[in-house]
Design brief:
This protein is of the alpha/beta class and 565 residues long. The chain is globular and about 80 Å long. Helix 1 packs across helix 2. It has a 6-stranded parallel β-sheet with strand order 3-2-4-5-7-6, sandwiched between helices. Strands 15-14-16-17-19-18 form a 6-stranded parallel β-sheet, sandwiched between helices. A 5-stranded parallel β-sheet has the order 10-9-11-12-13, sandwiched between helices. The chain is built from 22 helices and 19 strands. The termini are far apart. Residues 199-326 form the Thiamine pyrophosphate enzyme central domain. Catalyzes a carbon-carbon cleavage reaction; cleaves a 2-hydroxy-3-methylacyl-CoA into formyl-CoA and a 2-methyl-branched fatty aldehyde.
């Protein structure tokens, strides 16, 4: 009888053949065989403790590489836990594929082990989902989830592999024939670009603007648009404002950076070219009073639906890098530049200098017990001291992320990962692992609040197991926002002696957690202790947790979003 292979081998072969090099997940019934076969075929499998973290890793991997991040889960509850990552990919528009095993098809509806209608469960969070109902469909189904994940506006797709399909067999020659047919039939969407007449209009609006501003976000980072962006900024002299994850596409310290004058820049600009950033809550929906009511938006987005939703003065549908290339070409034929003495450029530059010097005065003080600023300055200086390739910074938490966004400096593209469009807490360790795997040449530094760290803290074992160069810095202020913030009259009722809903165990020894698995932990409470821990751990490039003790009353409730809480 000819050599046969089962559904596990065929699925692994399909992924390997179609360019997959990494997979994240949690194994178990019925997908352990699939993970093992994938490893045999040259795919690196990173095994996690929890599908939620593995899913966050897969979503961030998609963003950092531009290729779909893969998450493998077991059936039922595994699939449900994985939805955290799939939905995160959808909201942030990153390419990801979730693959879940599912129960035996013949037992559907009878209460089989971990039974769930998974195709129905993933619907709200996926661009496309498909179930392979026979082994011969596996190669086609694999291609059908990989391709839409990256086409148009990226997002999450889902592949369902029933237990019985994974156990079916076909001959090697049949498998090869199927793989070759699917490979030949794959069609990739061309990069979208707007007509040149639209580009001319956009440049004309920019040229006539009194107070233009360029805003860019993680869509521009995903499109690898940094070269064209820098060219545009430097050619035209237009000030720029990155969204938090757009930081580093043009160096944060660039003389035209307007981050230190954000309110002035968005409040007074008359034309805003917005590249790969949505006019959502992060940009105050593009509405007054934060923006001038007469501001003209030129929106560059890969999604036509997004542009229709926002109704800008001018919408350019296309890949950010391609559109900027066209804009630069149009400007080159008839150049214009604002010049440093332009009142608008001077006003922003002055405001930035004023705000930065106020912030630097605060940062210059060594406050002990630590507030948020003192350790953040020390961390900033240590990260800048690494040079190039710059470390990837992963940031989550309320106060920790807010302060970090203002203080930490990004000098290179795609070196900041944070809670993103959805404000997702719990992404930290998953993002660290994705960054270390996607950029093996870079150190990864997580700056986390103790609450944010708690969601995925067990994955420090995963860091140690795979020997990843990740330094996790925990800002430990004893709880969500920092301990008990209640007024005396709020402390009442039969359970008034319980800790506050925002409190954790004070002085928690988070650094010992990683030591349980053979990693290195540091407990720090003074500037010298922190400097020494950073210096040692950055040069060792090994898994580390630095437990930074912060004054529990240093932060603000809800970070900068008190109005929502």
């Amino acid at each position: 009888m000819a050599d046969c292979l089962d559904g596990n081998v065929l699925a692994a072969k399909s992924f390997a053949r179609f360019g997959v090099t990494h997979m994240f997940g949690v194994v178990g019934i019925p997908v352990t065989g699939l993970a093992n076969r994938a490893v045999q075929l040259g795919i690196r499998f990173i095994a996690f403790h929890n599908e939620q973290s593995a899913g966050y890793a897969a979503s961030a991997y998609g963003y950092l590489t531009g290729r779909p991040g893969l998450l493998l889960t077991v059936s039922g509850p595994g699939c449900v836990h994985g939805l955290a990552g799939l939905s995160n990919a959808m909201i942030n528009t990153w390419p990801m594929v979730m693959i879940s095993g599912s129960s035996d098809q013949k037992d559907s509806g009878r209460g089989d082990f971990q039974e769930l209608d998974q195709i129905e469960a993933v619907k709200p969070f996926s661009k496309f989902s498909v179930k392979a109902i026979d082994i011969k469909e596996i190669p086609d189904c694999v291609a059908r989830v990989l391709d839409p994940a990256v086409s148009g506006r990226p997002g999450g797709c889902y592949l369902d592999l029933p237990t019985d399909v994974l156990h079916q067999t076909i001959t090697e020659s049949e498998a090869e024939k199927l793989l070759t047919e699917v490979e030949k039939g794959r069609v990739f969407e061309a990069t979208k670009a707007p007509p040149s007449s639209e580009i001319e209009k956009a440049v004309s609006v920019l040229r006539k603007a009194e107070r233009p501003l360029i805003v860019f976000g993680k869509g521009a980072a995903y499109a690898r648009a940094e070269g064209e962006l820098k060219k545009l900024v430097e050619r035209t002299g237009i000030p720029f404002l990155p969204t938090p994850m757009g930081k580093g596409l043009v160096n944060d310290d660039h003389e035209l950076a307007a981050s230190g004058a954000r309110s002035l820049a968005i409040g007074k600009c008359d034309v805003a070219l917005v590249v790969g950033a949505r006019l959502n809550w992060l940009l105050h929906f593009g509405e007054s009073p934060k923006w001038d009511k007469d501001v003209k938006f030129i929106l560059v987005d890969v999604s036509e639906e997004e542009i229709k939703l926002r109704k800008p003065h001018l919408g350019l549908v296309g890949d950010a890098k391609k559109v900027l290339e066209m804009i630069n070409k149009e400007i080159k034929d008839d150049p214009f530049c604002l010049g440093k003495s332009r009142p608008w450029v001077e006003a922003i530059s002055k405001k930035v200098k004023d705000n930065v010097s106020k912030m630097e005065a605060q940062l210059a003080k060594d406050v002990v017990p630590f507030n948020f600023l003192t350790p953040m300055r020390i961390i900033r200086d240590a990260i800048l001291g690494v040079g190039s390739p710059a470390p990837v910074v992963v940031s989550e938490g309320a106060n920790t992320m807010d302060v970090g966004r203002s203080v930490l400096v990004q000098t290179e593209p795609r070196t900041r990962l944070d809670a993103g469009t959805w404000g997702t807490m719990g992404v930290g360790l998953g993002y660290c692992i994705a960054a270390a795997v996607a950029n093996p040449e870079r150190l990864v530094v997580a700056v986390e609040g103790d609450s944010g760290f708690g969601f995925s803290a067990m994955e420090v074992e995963t860091l140690v197991r795979y020997k990843l160069p990740v330094v996790v810095i925990v800002f430990n202020n004893g709880g969500v926002y920092g301990g008990d913030r209640r007024s005396p009259e709020e402390v009442s009722g039969p359970f008034k002696d319980d800790p506050a809903p925002t409190s954790f165990v004070p002085g928690a020894a988070y650094h010992t957690l990683i030591e349980a698995f053979g990693g290195k932990g540091y407990l720090v409470g003074t500037p010298d202790e922190l400097k020494s821990a950073l210096s040692e751990s950055f040069s060792a490039r090994k898994p580390v947790v630095i437990n930074v003790i912060i004054d529990p009353f240093a932060g603000a409730e809800s970070g900068r979003m008190q109005h929502k809480n």
